[in-house]
Amino acid sequence: MNEKKTKLRLSIMFIVMLSLTTNASLSGQDYLSPSAMVADNQAGKLYIAQSTAKQVAVFDISTRTVIKTYSLQAEPGGLALSADKSHLYVTCALPKGLVKVINLQTGKIIHTLPAGHTPTAPVLSSNGKTLYVCNRFDNNVSVINLASRKQIARIPVQREPVAAALTPNGRFLFVNNHIPAGAANKGNIAAVVSVIDTTSNNVITTIELPNGTTALQGICISPDGRYAYAAHILARYTVPTTQLERGWINTNALSIIDIESKKLFDTVLLDDVDNGAANPWAVGCTNDGKKVCVTHAGTDEISIIDVTALHDKIRKYHADEKNNQRGYGGQSNYGGYGTSSAPISNIPNELSFLYDIRKRIKLCGKGPRALAIIGSNIYVAEYFTDSLTLVDLNKTTGHKTTALPLGPTPQLTQIRRGEMLFHDASLCFQHWHSCASCHPGGARVDALNWDLLNDGLGNPKNTKNLLFAHRTPPAMITGVRENAEMAVRSGIRHILFAVRPEEEVVAIDEYLKSLEPIASPYLVDDKLSASAKRGQKIYNKAHCDSCHTGALHTDLQQHNVGTGDGLDKDRKFDTPSLVEAWRTAPYLYDGRAATIEEVLAIYNSDDKHGATSNLSLKELSDLANFVLSQ
Q: 386 and 299 share a domain?
């Protein structure tokens, strides 16, 4: 009898443990998060980087199943496949970045190559001998000789390189810089494309995109090598955020670059008149060059654009502008967009420009990121639903979409749901933007000033990093919100122009609370450099620690530090945390300081935020290095 009871107890325990194990596998903790893809067209395979699973999956397109995974024990950031399809190069997004080389015949990781801080977007040279890697937070591109497995150059670019594409002849590498660099109160504020000459390993020109370009994401080059296409947000930050209609706050765009002249050809809006196409992400051309495709991470869609019709329409528009003197080549009479590398054009104001030459297709999953094109089929990786959508471009199918799961359907935790909602533009009236549009890169900054409705009109403020926002009340630069919970709800009401269920807003709160800081690129072997150590002593001596105190370097108070101007003259500002100050430039409430050195040396003459006026240039540099090491 006792033996039977013991067996019964063991059986019950086994069932309970099995239930717990099963629930754990469906609890939403084991996400895949597909974020990058590369296709082996001949073998009919997709290699898919799965960020949170820290692995690469091999997807067979004939059976529509994952047939193999490669464990990396680090978050994959980008993929490149050798021309003979024998080796896969995987960047691992670590402060001490790595590139892992997988031999696809043996299935083994055969080499680990050093790279910079958070490497991504690997690109192989046309001869297969060189690998280019974007080091996002080092603001440079590594050039790695694959024979010696050594880095032979690091090429400085402007800010946060996140995507790159090589011309078919292998001569030029076009690199997308994610967000603008420099002060936020100057005339033209925009992310740029750096052009690298691969023979000299130098940036030979920087292509300016239209004013307000931020969250610059994917880039591709047409098969004929004539044009590059880059996807980004085109923010209308120069006007108060009083409405959303007709893209008043944010629009979403595709910039077209002429490869030969290395100048901007023009920028077209991906939105419709009353329906935003938020957060454009990946870009790709079909093999025949007839279509350019853009995923929309905020609206879970893909745009498929007729390339010939697009270029013909732009040329005709340019000719009409020139003939009618509508601003082309000179000053626009009604707010046309242009740069020093391209004539002023009004096309970036035309919300109906793609009418009749673009198909806008709803995808099956949530959070589309990467895309890969095989023949007439487009495969789109969907970050939040651990899935692919197959879009069939065959005319007889009418652009049919098919959902392809990469694993079990994820059950969202509150944090994961909040992350999805933070990136979801369906919360927003007319879908123009999501929370992530102004806080890209994991709820960080877009480097722009915005005139929000929080504190009146006519006093723009620089976008804040949301890391630790819930731990450092009050919220907003002037502390107008008592805490971050109130600020999140205010943002939904006044920026998304929506009212959402409280459980959704709580989930966004929980996501923001879960954010973790990234190690500063100014650290040396995870420790302060010699300069930063000297700077730490100066930090204390100059009484910086009287306000920027504690582990988060803030006293949670408001102070008048003499930097107010205009409507904000003599105003008190909330003491910002210095954690991740290295990635939140520009500085001060209106972004007037491009660097920490400018904050200390130019905008603190009266020593109201630290006794720095008598410091030498070397001491200022050391102090800045300490601040940037946090």
A: yes
351 and 475 share a domain? no
* Mean pLDDT across 274-293: 97
Q: For residues 592 and 583, what is the distance between their CA atoms, to the nearest angstrom?
A: 16
Q: Could you tell me the pLDDT band of residue 451, with boundaries at 50, 70 and 90?
A: very high
Question: Does one domain contain both 189 and 328?
Answer: yes
Q: Using only C-alpha atoms, what is the Rg of the chain?
A: 25
With beta carbons less than 8 A apart as the criterion, state whether 225 and 168 touch. yes
CA separation for the pair 352, 431 (Å, rounded):
16
User: Is residue 152 a part of any domain in this protein?
Assistant: no
Tokens for 265? 């050809």
433 alpha carbon, distance to own chain's centre: 14
The predicted model gives 156-182 an average pLDDT of 98
Residues 384 and 441 in one domain: no
Domain with 436, as residue range(s), is: 415-513
Q: Looking at the structure, tell me whether residues 234 and 355 fall in a common domain.
A: yes
pLDDT of residue 320: 86
Exposure class string for 428-444: b at 16+ Cβ within 10 A, else e = bebbbbbbbbbbbbebb
Q: What is the DSSP letter of 520?
A: P
Say which range, 45-54, 94-103, 449-458, has the weakest mean pLDDT: 449-458
Listed residue (143, 139, 121) closest to 177, CA to CA:
139
Q: Which string of b and e fits 311-328 if b means at least 16 CB within 10 Å?
A: bebbeebbeebeeeebbb
In the predicted structure, residue 344 carries a pLDDT above the cut 90: no
Sign of the CA dihedral 417, 420, 422, 426? negative
Whether residue 112 lies inside any domain: the answer is no
**From CA 29, how far away is CA 33, in angstroms rounded?**
11
* Statement to judge: residues 468 and 340 lie in one domain: no
Q: Does the residue 484 lie in any domain?
A: yes
| Count of domains for the chain | 3
**pLDDT per residue over 467-507, tens digit each?**
999 999 999 999 999 999 999 999 999 999 999 999 999 99
- Any residues with CB less than 8 A from the CB of 359 and at least 6 apart, and which? 303, 304, 399
Q: CA-based diameter of the chain, in Å?
A: 100
pLDDT, tens digit, 9 for 90 and up, residues 83-109: 999 999 999 999 999 999 999 999 999
How does pLDDT run across 564-587, given as a tens digit for each residue? 999 899 999 999 999 999 999 999
Is there a single domain that holds both residue 173 and residue 294? yes
Q: Check which CATH number belongs to the domain holding 446 and give it.
A: 1.10.760.10
